Description:
The chain has helices spanning 19-34, 98-103, 106-123, 135-148, and strands at 2-5, 9-10, 45-52, 67-75, 83-95. It is of the alpha/beta class.
Amino acid sequence: MEIALNPPVLSIEFDNTNKFKEILSLEEEMNLYFKDRFYSDLVESYYIEFICVSPLFRPFNKPKKTKYYKDVIQNNSFIQGEKIHFYKMLLISMDLDFESFYRSDQIEGYNIIANTLLKFLDKLKYPQAINSFDEKKFNNDLKDFFIQIGCTLQNN
């Protein structure tokens, strides 16, 4: 299964940090780990969007509702005339705590991502259309992945 950490929504304070590169690096590691794993024949791509903005920008950047796309073609909102094909894709969106993530080094940042994501997934109600998705196995594999890269997990 493909894991994509959608370009994160980071406020301008992050422009002089390595957070964007760190998230891209995490995405590469996740894709290697999850490449040959299977959770449902209905989900080939799992997109995760992190939103981490200062309080000033918070009202304009809220997490989106969880969505599943079985087979949809939509107009690209950035490039006129271009279409985007979403196929067997699940998209989730969540907040990261601005203060702690902004001040964190790489491994602390990964710890914040890991614990925030795992807590979010524990409460996530998956769309009915993908009720065959093995969320327990996925969550356990995700925990194993984060432990493997050196994260310290909290009991969620």
